[in-house]
Amino acid sequence: MGHSDATPVFVDTNFGTHLALPVPPDITAADVKRQLEREHFSCFPCIGEIKAQALMVSYRDFHSCITC
What we know:
Number of strands: 4
Radius of gyration: 12 Å
Order of helices and strands: EEHEE
Shape: globular
């Protein structure tokens, strides 16, 4: 599957790291968290493996916390 239909999601972590992930429209929040964990380790191996416990989504002045 290509990422041509994916939306870029920009991530700021509690570790002060930043990532951009291609997120397809049919992905679940749990899958996004797993993808974030893999990509973070790939980009920042010196930090080690992380565990994404929740996602906070910011859109304009609205913030939503997604846990799963």
